[in-house]
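[job 4471] stage=fold_predict status=RUNNING
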Amino acid sequence: MTNPSRRIRIVAYAVAAGAMLSGLAPAVGASAAPTAGPASAAPAADDPVPDHEGMPDDGFESEPEGEQDDLAGTATAAARAGAVAAAPVPGRAADFRLAKGTDLSGLVNKLDAGLPKQGLTELLEQANRPAADCGTSGIYGPDLTVSHRICWKADDDATSKEWVPQAISGVSDAQEDEDWGTSNAEPVAVGSYDAVNPGRSDYAAGRDNCLASSVSDACNEKGIRVTFFNQATKMYRHVLLVWPYMNSKDHISFDALHAREGRCNQVVVTDCAAQNGIHAGGMVWYGNYLYVADTANGLRVFDLRKIMDLNPDNDAAVNDPTPDGLESDVQDKKLVGRQSNVWYAYGYRYVMPQVATLKFTTAKNGGTTSGNQCYATGRPKASYVSLDRTGTDHMVLGEYCNTNNGGTSPGRVGAYPMTALTAAVEGATGTAASADEAYGLPTGATFGNEDLWHKIQGAMRYEGKWYFHRSNAYDNGRLLQATPGTVDGTTQLVGNAKTLQSSFGPEDLYLAHGRGDGFPPQLWSLSEHAPDATKCSACKREVYSYNMAEVISDFG
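[job 4471] inference complete, writing structure tokens
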């Protein structure tokens, strides 16, 4: 709802084509935003607040709350040994098939017409949060030297209980030449999920109305945000990912990303369920598109040409008019989407709507996944993704599995030609993309009295070899290497016996080739754990890189 004491400033959104930064690649450049409609326009009445809370069901399956949980499971060593196959599970590329879901272009076009846009170059130039001084203390093991470190402000690191970093990508994935316009921003993108999940107005579970003044804004499940770091200025900016839908008044709106959810209003109904957001354990930024892993379903796809700007005048105290004749509010952190003729985004200035869905076509295995179990056949989990540019461009996708609770597989990985994924995104509903390579993870090695080859948080293929980030609860993780080889007449991933200590809480992997910044190839990753006096006082959230040549050399 609008605060009548706040001022409204009329802002012109028309942007001349000549004002664009020269040299900006069309794949990621800003489009001219439409001119705002007349401020006096009187749009039709919208849904009241708080009775209608804008909670669409996006048709996705829910993920378990403990997705990618290292601490799940108490099985004995004997039980674990019997649960996982003695040899690697077969790689079945057909299990990895993805098909485009319902066409979202009409919804996205409606949002595009109603809200002003912002190009990523301009967003980076207006980044509002300075990266922190990393200091001298480190979160790394002795085996690898850290080349680059990016640290978060305190409210994104030590004091943030809500947002947990998971995924990483960057300009080297987006453009092979890494030539980002005329700047040397060399942006790195990080995806984080909202880990505080009390649900929104879940009265059946006894939870309060999240719109009540006494309730923290953390009450709402905000889904996923992507953070873009400008390496030149050491500044960063958050962007909220959203799902477009038509609200009950047949007006275009958006909500944060969730898995399947009930409609939880003041009237208690039996199917009312607390929100359960996706985990976003991996992310690839390729050309126009940002591919985000959705564990239970496949990939959600976003278009960087569709970043919406709810505060073009850069003055949060002023409600800006929008091209559809409404206005936007970036101070209220409890509302999202179109509410009573005002646009909200949980206080974020920028939102980026989902433009496509790529969903697995294979049926799930019938076994339970409540303890992060995985299986040798059936639909894989989309736990992490990365890009291989060392040959024909491919996306690598793989599973996080915890064999301590059983299952029949420590995990599988597959690789898709990017041409096939792009064609699926841009094709009609049902257009499919197939993996052309798939493997089960190696088996047999142990670490800390459990399987070595499970609990994989990120994977990457580089010059024919595979690299994996293996987490280890609140201690140093491990970087692993494997190479395809023929064993007993079948092609399998054969693990290198050597492991390299990595950071506390290691996550996704991203390879920057250095074609734009002059650095040698860098293997980037990030850590998820904030410092915690009872769990890990030495932990810290950082984004960091290793020299890839050193990684290769250390594995021998």
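[job 4471] summary: Confidence is low (pLDDT under 50) at residues 1-45, 47-54.
[job 4471] exit 0
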